Amino acid sequence: MRCSVPVLIALVLAAGSPAAGQTPNEELLRRIEAAEGSTQLDILLRGAAAARLLGDFDTGDELMGRATTALEQGQNAWVTEMIFQALAAGEGANGMRRAFRRALGIHPMTPQQIASITNNFPALLQGGEFDEMILDFRLNHPDSLYDCSCLAEKAWVHRVAGRLHESRILWGELVAAWDRNPLEFDDPDAQANWQGQYARNLARAGRAADARAALAKAMSMPLSDDERPGVQRRWAQTYAELGEVEMAVELLEPLITSSTLVTVNSLSTRQTWEPVRNTLAFQEMLARHR
Fold first, then answer.
1. Among the listed residues 224, 226, 221, the one whose alpha carbon sits nearest the alpha carbon of residue 198
2. What is the dihedral of CA 255, 257, 262, 267, to 10 degrees?
3. Nearest-5° angle of CA 259, CA 265, CA 270?
4. CA dist 76 → 79, 97, 105 (Å)
5. I need a surface site. Which of 133, 148, 164, 225 has the fewest CB within 10 A?
6. DSSP labels for 190-239?
7. Phi-psi label, residue 111: left if phi above 0, alpha if psi -120 to 50, beta otherwise
8. What is the C-alpha to C-alpha distance for residues 191 and 10, in angstroms, rounded to an integer?
9. Alpha-carbon distances of 192 from 106, 221, 231, 255, rounded to whole Å
10. What phi and psi, each to the nearest 5 degrees, are found at residue 183?
11. 214 to each of 166, 175, 239, 241, how far by Cα in Å?
């Protein structure tokens, strides 16, 4: 019987390889060890499979739990990048919503996952597609999928819909909770970023004097060069919320010319800049960089 070259190669490889399930125990242990220090989905799954083959089901369960977390994080990152791509391409809020709907068609998300994405991209809330779902969130909800205070997420629903008073009340509840339990980080960059968010949310809650004091503290905190653009954007958001357009522009303009999240398209579309978008100073800044 004559065999073609590809068939002969396949037969040789098969003869020289162990059958499925015959992986040496040493290799299986090595895969488990590699998984224990990894956050990569494929490595975690290989480790879980190795633990299963060795009969170590507790380790297998633990690695599968971490694999599930990695899968969810990867899914969220993938959806986020879909939206960012639409934003960067200048497709506006409608393009962002189209990208989100395409992503949901491929990978359905839980209500809380959807709320998390819309919290990062409130422009997705235009049109009210997710309003009823998000406003149904509350602590101790009988449905675990809706068991969440989700104060910022609900605040954005009201704000995008033009209900500013209701939005400020929810931002106020959020910063009041932070006042009771201020977050403390060992990493100075993380602390500076949180302080910037705190100042911004105080402004969104209508606590202007407190926001200015918190912002002054934020801008005096140590910060690495790598993290400065992201945190500086928080400062600019605070000034935008306070209506101090010139100060916001002063912080934003250097970021437009570098590789940051601040671009002409993002400034023209993202909901966070809505309070100052139509001011002369802001429009002049956009015109300088188009």
1. 221
2. 110
3. 105
4. 5, 15, 14
5. 225
6. HHHHHHHHHHHHHHHTT-HHHHHHHHHHHHTS---TTTHHHHHHHHHHHH
7. alpha
8. 57
9. 37, 6, 7, 18
10. -80, 140
11. 23, 12, 12, 14
Return the amino acid letter for 42: D
Tokens representing 113?
């996952």
231-268 pLDDT tens trace? 999 999 999 999 999 999 999 999 998 888 999 999 99
Alpha helices in 37-91 (DSSP H): 41-53, 57-88
8 A C-beta contact, residue 176 and residue 182:
no
Q: Using CA atoms, how far apart are residues 208 and 85, in angstroms rounded to an integer?
A: 34
The two structure tokens encoding residue 262: 């601040």
- Residue labelled with tokens 């956050």: 39
For the cut 60, the answer to whether the pLDDT of residue 1 exceeds it is: no
How is residue 83 written in tokens?
Answer: 């939206």
* Identity at 59, one-letter amino acid code: T
Buried b (16+ CB within 10 A) or exposed e, 121-138: bbbbbeeeebbebbeebe
114-172 pLDDT, tens digit each = 999 999 999 999 999 999 999 999 999 999 999 999 999 999 999 999 999 999 999 99
User: Which tokens is 268 given?
Assistant: 């023209």
Rg for the chain, CA atoms, rounded: 25
pLDDT at 13: 35
Q: What is the mean pLDDT of residues 60-64?
A: 95
Q: Residue for token digits 């954007």?
A: 233
Tokens standing for 231? Answer: 């945190």
pLDDT of residue 23: 87
CB 195 within 8 A of CB 211: no
